[in-house]
Amino acid sequence: MANDADLEQRLRDLTLVKDTARSEIDNAADTETLEALRIKYLGKKGLLSTFLKGLGNLPQEKRRQIGLLANEARELVEVLLERRRDVLKRKELEERLSAERIDVSLPATPVLIGRKHPLMETLEEVERIFTSMGFEIAEGPEVEYDYYNFVALNIPKGHPARDMQASFYITDEILLRTHTSPVQIRAMRSKAPALPVRLIATGKVYRRDDDATHSPMFHQIEGLVIDKRVTMGDLKGVLLEFARQMYGRQATVRLRPSYFPFTEPSAEVDVSCTVCGGRGCRTCKGTGWLEILGSGMVHPKVLENGGYDPAKVTGFAFGMGLERIAMLRYGLDDIRVFFQNDIRFLHTVGRM
Ligand code: DAH
Description:
Helix 1 (4-27) packs parallel to helix 4 (60-99) and helix 7 (182-191) crosses helix 9. The protein has a seven-stranded mixed β-sheet with strand order 1-4-5-9-8-7-6, sandwiched between helices. The longest helix is centred in the N-terminal third of the chain and has 40 residues, at 60-99. 44% of the residues lie in helices and 19% in strands. The protein has two domains: 2-99; 118-351, BirA Bifunctional Protein, domain 2 (2-Layer Sandwich). The termini are far apart. The chain has twelve helices and nine strands. By secondary structure, the protein is α+β, with helices and mostly antiparallel strands. 3,4-dihydroxyphenylalanine binds at residues 179, 181, 222, 260, 263, 294-296, 317-319.
């Protein structure tokens, strides 16, 4: 039978549970501990449930009274848990934010990305300039017949001009092309008698040559224009526009008489020095001029070999070395750097 002493003991028990709960909850260091405390006090088998269950043997009136107090205690513990949870959650969020902070001012890990080879950059610029003037782009084989490479260009067997282009022969009649000029013949033959012909042909050429300014493989850009009444003035105008777009509006060109078997008359073309602008410096050896290409009016025999009637049409042609154009563009004095593929050179040339 329950008596008052029993009741008082239970009330003291309840107060003790409340007080311990309060202090444990206030001291809980993290939300995990807090969850353990929730189970300890409010869980199905928790202290407060057990306490309520133990009231069974009290008289109803007392049971009600102490039951109310126990429920108040339960609500209090819930409130305490919730407040503590808020505090801990905020604390944990702050800790995570400061632990995961990113210093955006730290240098990033460099990502090495590729870039176009300086020769290809120059080639694309040359192609852009000529296509902007209405030229189309033609191609021909690198392994070529002696006939297209020489004979059709008015350089018959035994002609001294062959000596200037030391060749890699594959058979007596087949060689690695020594220049892009054979594309003139191939292009004319595929187009004749259509007018106008206005094209550039770019690509690799091969000669038995190897020093600071010569590479056994290099690139040329060939130009060919054929129409009615094409003159040397047109040639100079086109090359002047090319020089201005390539080296700046202040650039000028001059033509010097020269000789090529496939043009008559022939001219070598100089551009005003890209380094000193024409005043004279080391690059232009004090002359103010740099030689950039060979050119001339297409020889009547060459027009004929291409299938055009030299009595009805005229044309001009020019040929330049891409490496030479690129060396002037980037201020280089050794052609071999283009082909050694030193990544430091490839990454920095033109960006200094
Ligand atoms: N083919 C010549 C060479 O490789 C360059 C050249 C000169 C091309 C005059 C031409 C030209 O079309 O008209 O040296």
